Amino acid sequence: MAKEESSKETHWEPQIVAFCCRHCAYAAADLAGGLRLAYPPSVKVFELPCTGRLDVLHVLRTFEDGADGVMVAG
Amino acid sequence: MIVAEQKPLAEIKAMLAGYQKVLVVGCGTCVTVCFAGGEKEVGILASALRMATRLDGNGIDLDETTVQRQCEWEYIDPLADRLEDYDALLSLGCGVGVQTLAERFPSKRVLPGLNTSFMGLPTEQGVWEERCQACGNCILDMTGGICPIARCSKQLLNGPCGGSQNGECEINPEIPCAWQLIWERMSALGLLEQLMEVQPPKDWSTSRDGGPRRIIRDDLRLPEDYRDT
After folding, report:
1. Nearest Cα to Cα of residue B206 among B217, B215, B197
2. A68 close to B (CB below 8 A)
3. Tell me, what's the pLDDT at B228?
4. Which of A11, A55, B130, B147 is in the most buried spot, having the most CB atoms within 10 Å?
């Protein structure tokens, strides 16, 4: 158990929330899925109608809720 | 408008030390339009404080609310029913808002999250400048609509001092000399002659020098029996 925990610590992966524009980055992620290309499960994709919709409060709340990093793609 | 700036996060955090449940109260008027204490800033500050205090190991439970105007009883009275649960209120109103809350809810600790700076206007996006010092005896008719009390570093009444250089104030080259501006404006209006009239020393008793000020309008007051405060 202790070994497992320490191995978890060694392999800690940051949880990333990716805010993606539906017209480019989100479509690209969709295409990646269609092509069966894998990306780490630690990345959570969040679709926005446009990254212009992103607000500083969205980013702050994401961190508050436990994300280690935020990616904005658009 | 009243222009204010948010206090540094560390200062606010230190003020809140020891409180467990805090209500952050924004104001929907002046401090909203100067981006210091409106609904959005309340959300950002509360979020930042939640994270900062959690990282310090003493996470404070912060709720958020914004009233339309913190400086009038009728707008803050509806808060009364919600206050029982809170140890303190963090006001993002101007100094008037903080005091209005403290006066209305005397059993609650009310803390200021902003530094109230001045009365002014946004001269461009993201830039605010002082325009009025509420001296209580307006002389803008004599100075072409440019106030030497608020805009001259020395509050001179009869022209510029020797520190006026190329239209700039010696205090800071980014501050235009108010008397240069006045001269230019009066010149353009063809009213330079008016500036030749020597102004006597100003009577400051209508300003802060006369102590806290009060205006009573009997034509607007309710009859004594109907007053609630």
Report:
1. B215
2. no
3. 74
4. B147
**Sign, Cα dihedral of A37, A43, A47, A48:** negative
* Burial of residue A61 (number of CB atoms within 10 Å: 0-12, 13-18, 19+): middle
Domains held by chain A: number: 1
Task: Give phi and psi for B63, each to the nearest 5.
Answer: -105, 165
The distance of B30 to chain A (nearest Cα, Å) reads 21
Task: Tell me the C-alpha distance between B188 and A45, whole Å.
Answer: 61
Domain count, chain B: 2
Q: Are A13 and A40 in contact (CB under 8 A)?
A: yes
pLDDT of amino acid B93 = 98
Chain B residues closer than 8 Å to A57 by CB: 40, 43-44, 47
Same domain, B140 and B114: no
**Mean pLDDT, chain B, integer:** 96
Reduced to 3 states (helix: H, G, I; strand: E, B; else coil), residue B52 is: helix
Residue A53, Ramachandran bin (φ over 0: left; ψ between -120 and 50: alpha; else beta): alpha
ipTM: 0.76
Rg, C-alpha atoms of chain A: 15
What CATH number has the domain bearing residue A29?
Answer: 3.40.50
Rounded Cα distance between A55 and B104, Å, is: 34
Q: Which residues form the domain of B139?
A: 134-210
Pick the residue of A54, A57, A62, A70 with the most B CBs within 10 A to test the interface with B by mutation.
A57
Q: Tell me: the pLDDT tens digits for A13-69?
A: 999 999 999 999 999 999 999 999 998 899 999 999 999 999 999 999 999 999 999
Contact A57 B51 (CB under 8 A): no
- DSSP assignment of A21-57, as one string? ETTTHHHHHHHHHHTT----TTEEEEEES-GGG--HH
CA distances, B135 to each of A22, B5, B147, B204, B213 (Å): 55, 23, 11, 7, 10
Q: What is the pLDDT of residue A9?
A: 61
